[in-house]
Amino acid sequence: MEWRFTFPTASLLMHMLALTSNQAQARVFDIIKFGAVGDGKTDNSKALSNAWNRACHSQGTSIILIPSGTYLLGPVVLMGPCNGAIEFQIKGTLRASNSPQLGIDHWITFRFIDRLRITGGVLDGQGAASWPYNDCSKNPNCKSLPVTMRLDFVTKAWIRHVTSLNSKNFHFNLFSCKDITFDHVTITAPADSPNTDGIHMARSSNVFVRDSVISTGDDCISLGPGSKNIKMTGIACGPGHGISVGSLGSTPNEPPVTTVFVRNCTFTDTQNGMRIKTRAPSYQGVVQDITFQDIIVKNAGNPIIIDQQYCPSKKCRNQASKVKISDVGFRNIRGTTSSLVAVNINCSPAAPCTGIELRDIDLEYDGRGGKASSDCKNAQGTSHGKQKPPSCL
């Protein structure tokens, strides 16, 4: 495998430079002037929606300003398309309701927008009120819970220096997006908070996550069906469940996950490190061209894991996954593992993994009772350089 991914795209860089240079001429829509009150008690949903509508219909670049203060905000959908670029500038804190909000799947949603910049400030999801109700793994009739920020059908967006605290569900969710950059984002929730994925994406392409700290109760970053041309660098993950491709195969006709590059990341006290997971049984699917490179793990469980028997409900039938995994590289992976099986490549007998590469692996078991080992099933590939534990390929 040879990595040819270039990112950010030229069009996105040109957009960001243009947006920055045009700020002096941009119109500012201060939510205070639309009736917002930053006392942490007043519902500012209408004020923000009115400011958004005015900005969206204005020509040229517009800035929506959330000044210093704490602004209580109910669920809002900020719709495009807009007549110009939008900067959503948070100087203070946006705070969600302290109620569970069962049956509501969003808090702040941006939809059908081209050229969006979200900068600074704090998004306080007040998730503790909802976590006891997050029981979908065992309750088929569970109700949806709000995602802190949804981006649906958004192109050319930059999320920078934003802090997301204690989401009720996922912190960020991307669906059908293109040319998105997360830059110096901080995501925080307790290790036992359920389903609080840091960044989840599906059917999205050209996504770049860089130089960010993600400490949460589920996957730091998770890639659903249709994730393509994804790059992650400089991510500090932990606690959490690691960086995951999947789970995949739960629905028919899922688009493939392809061309993913993860580099210079650190996993500390995570349940998993680098993970690919598919359901069993499953529908057909494809995972191809995935690279994990220059990774440090510190007391991480399952540092390297391909799990094609993923079953969160623990009630799955004993059938094989039909998701085909190929061309996956683990290169220069080093550190300590809290599990004896440091390299666990459990592929499907119905669609064996091909093109798996282990190169320069140095993982030591951080505990008593033996040395770290490797375990491979239904996997074909090659090993190069140092192999600690000894390769199973």
Description:
The structure is a single chain. By secondary structure, the chain is mainly β. The chain has two helices and 28 strands. The chain is elongated. The model is unreliable at 1-6 (pLDDT under 50). Residues 1-26 form the signal peptide. Residues 375-384 have a biased composition (Polar residues). This is Exopolygalacturonase. Keywords: Cell wall, Cell wall biogenesis/degradation, Glycosidase, Hydrolase, Secreted, Signal.
Please sum up the structure shown:
The chain contains two helices and 28 strands.
Give the N-to-C terminal Cα separation.
17 Å
Number of strands: 28
Helical region count?
A: 2
Computed over alpha carbons, the radius of gyration is: 21 Å
Work out the strand percent: over 45%
Query: Roughly what percent helix?
Result: under 10%
pLDDT average, as an integer? 93
List the helices and strands in order.
Answer: HEEHEEEEEEEEEEEEEEEEEEEEEEEEEE
What class, by secondary structure content?
Answer: mainly beta
Question: Low-confidence parts lasting 5 or more residues at pLDDT below 50?
Answer: 1-6
Tell me about the largest β-sheet: 28 strands, parallel
| Morphology | elongated
